[in-house]
Amino acid sequence: MGAKIPAKDLAYVHQILNRTPMYEEAKAQVQKGLEGYKGEAWDFESKGLVETANASSSAEEESSNDITQL
Question: Which parts of the chain register pLDDT below 70?
């Protein structure tokens, strides 16, 4: 999970999980995520918004200049 979850909110999610209609596989994934939650935001080591936009822009420019794509 990419966010810190307050204890009262985490308890609420646990409380309503079994009452929430969803596929069993999805419910199992949510339960596994809740069980693995250690009270800290998970660092996905992903690029920020600006870096992602710049990388996307560079990739588009490279593909538009690639003569094999013509």
Answer: 1-2, 41-44, 57-70
Cα–Cα distance, 47 to 44 (Å, whole number): 9
Residue 44 in contact with residue 57, Cβ under 8 Å?
no
Which region holds residue 15: left if phi is over 0, alpha if psi is between -120 and 50, else beta?
alpha
The amino acid at residue 51 is E
- Average pLDDT of the residues of the chain: 76
Q: Are 37 and 10 in contact (CB under 8 A)?
A: yes
CB neighbour list of residue 27: distance below 8 Å, 6 or more residues apart: 17, 18, 20
The runs of H, that is alpha helices, within 1-70 are 7-17, 24-36, 49-65
Asked if residues 4 and 41 have their Cβ atoms less than 8 Å apart, the reply is yes
